[in-house]
Amino acid sequence: MKEVMKIGGKLAAICAIAAIALGIVNAITEPIIIAARAEKVRLALIELSVGLEIGELNEVNNEGAILGYYPLSSLENIKAYIVNIIGSGYAGDMNLLTAISLEGEVLSVVLMKHTETPGLGKEAENASYMEKFIGKGNGSIIPSSKSHLDPKEADSIAGASITFIGIGKALNEAADFVGQLGGM
Amino acid sequence: MSYIGIIITFVFINNFILTQFLGLCPFIGVSKNVESAVGMGFAVTFVMALASIASWVIYHYVLIPLDIVFLQTISFILVIAALVQFVELVIQKISPALYKALGIFLPLITTNCAVLGIALINVRNDYNALESFIAGIAAGLGFLLAILLMSTIRVKLDSEWIPKPFRGIPIAFITGGLMALAFMAFDNALLNNLLG
Amino acid sequence: MLKEFTKGFIKENPVFIIVLGLCPALGVSTKVVNSIGMGAGVIFVLLGSNIFVSLLKNFIPEKVRIPAYIVIIASFVTIVEMVMEAFIPALYDSLGVFVPLIVVNCVILGRAEAFANKNTVKASILDALGMGLGFTLALIIIALVREVFGLGTITLFPIGNFNGVIEIPGLIDSPVRVFALAAGALLVMGFLKALFTWIEDIRRVKQ
């Protein structure tokens, strides 16, 4: 019994020292990581804002794809919104920021975080992939199925169609949401 | 994400061995005959299912409330090591026959990337408890499928003439590569057509 | 003493000869830069774990040595994870789940069990550096083959005006995509392993 206590005590000591050491490293690196993430969001917002003034984040708590939105305004008049959305990929969720005009037109899309397989779904990180959504809405359909694309375009997303549909659906929801918000 | 979607994804499209390279060591090392391949496959599936649940509980009820998510890797690997020991003891007590079949593979499983892999991937994908459990079983079955196919091919290969430098491990890798090529047929489009 | 350092390069190369640490070797070797990053992470963890296992070899009880080694290794892996995410986030993103998976890289536990717990700190450091560099070298070789043929590029670190990507004329426009995919990794590994076996055989015959 005494032997067991001794062995357990030694193992516990190693664990405790390891946990303390990691706690110290974490205390140093965590602020840097948080700052880097905030910076990434800030840069993405600036890219999406097309020179308009970015308002405060409003969080949304419903069951749908929308997490929150930032109003974009020029001289106090709201012109568009940046919407923070979740699209479902085929093995997990993707986080996107999209700028949508009051008329429901998708101005731009940026992929923030995804859990898709490297290789296939990663196509979504390419700007050209996102271009298939830009300028859609406001009269035309935001594609959320391959049948919305012409055959040549559909081929280029062959490997990542679930990702594509996931993004398309989330964008449609975001466009509807912006329609409801209106200019306030 | 639907449960069927998760199953198809982890068994075929994201097969742990053939597309994610998780669990390659036993895939090459324990696939020389069908019997041990099946034993290893079931042992891994069993441990992965349990590890998925255990790591989910640890993550959501210990690491997040105490705000020590940075201890994730260390706590998951310790949970897996403890779990493997525990499973070994239980099986030994309850079913000596099963222990005889799976026993020798259990100690190897602690350092199998696939088990720690599924625990980490579940967290990254924000799966809930049931989704984690299903993903664990499905990934294990994917492993079983790949190692079973591999072992049957290797048994056939034993009776073929192979250039000397390719014998053993190299031909196993090349076989695995050809299997991976075949598995590329399972892509998202398949899931799309099945589930709409 | 020097032998402890050089044995990991070819004679006991962890990937090509002993065939350990395969998951990261194939998983991250789509680009040369990822291989270098992964190699650096493994060298750091291997160095840390070898030093501590060797220092604590009389303190750690025989019965619980494996869990104790795992705790030591996992601590160093977590440090690598945190530092990499803080300072090189792009690399952290592209290595993904393979960073925490360094814990179960059999090379590291293997060296702790087979070498560090029997040898002096100095020999363990040399062993860690040699094995770590051997591992990195293997990863770079695999990545070179896969990236040159699969993508038609060689991606290194961006320095100054150089953006870090060398384009291979002829291959950049029509790369052999399969090399970059999972199947290509296994095929390349099979042929490289055969090559190493063949070289080893020739050497043995000469002796």
Overview of the structural elements:
The complex is a heterotrimer of chains A (184), B (196) and C (207). The N and C termini of chain A lie far apart (73 Å). Chain A is an alpha+beta fold. Chain A has 2 domains: 1-49; 53-181, no CATH class. Chain A has 4 helices and 6 strands. The radius of gyration of chain A is 22 Å and the shape is elongated. Chain B contains 10 helices and no strands. Chain C has one domain (2-206). Chain C is built from 8 helices and 2 strands, in the order αααααααββα. Chain C has a two-stranded antiparallel sheet with strand order 1-2. Chain C starts with a helix and ends with a helix. The chains are: A alpha+beta (184), B mainly alpha (196), C mainly alpha (207). Chains B and C meet through α2, α4, α7 and α9 of B and α2, α4 and α8 of C.
Short description:
Helix content of chain A is 43%, strand content 23%.
Write out key terms for the chains shown.
heterotrimer; A: 184 residues; alpha+beta; 6-stranded antiparallel sheet; 4 helices; 43% helix; 23% strand; elongated; B: 196 residues; mainly alpha; 10 helices; globular
**Which residues of chain B sit in consecutive blocks of at least 5 with pLDDT less than 50?**
none
**How far apart lie the N and C ends of chain A?**
73 Å
The number of helices of chain A is 4
User: Radius of gyration of chain B, rounded?
Assistant: 18 Å
Oligomer: heterotrimer
What number of structural domains do the residues of chain B give? Answer: 1
Count every beta strand of chain B, where a strand is a DSSP E run of 2 or more residues. Answer: 0
SSE topology sketch:
The complex is a heterotrimer of chains A (184), B (196) and C (207).
Chain A: H1 2-49, E1 53-54, E2 58-59, E3 66-74, E4 77-88, E5 93-101, E6 106-113, H2 127-131, H3 151-156, H4 161-181
Antiparallel strand pairs in A: 1-3, 2-3, 3-4, 4-5, 5-6
Chain B: H1 3-13, H2 24-29, H3 34-63, H4 72-94, H5 96-102, H6 106-109, H7 113-124, H8 129-157, H9 169-183, H10 188-195
Helix pairs in contact in B: 1-8, 3-4, 3-7, 3-8, 4-5, 4-7, 7-8, 8-9
Chain C: H1 2-6, H2 22-27, H3 32-55, H4 65-87, H5 89-95, H6 106-116, H7 121-150, E1 153-155, E2 165-167, H8 182-206
Antiparallel strand pairs in C: 1-2
Helix pairs in contact in C: 3-4, 3-6, 3-7, 4-5, 4-6, 6-7, 7-8
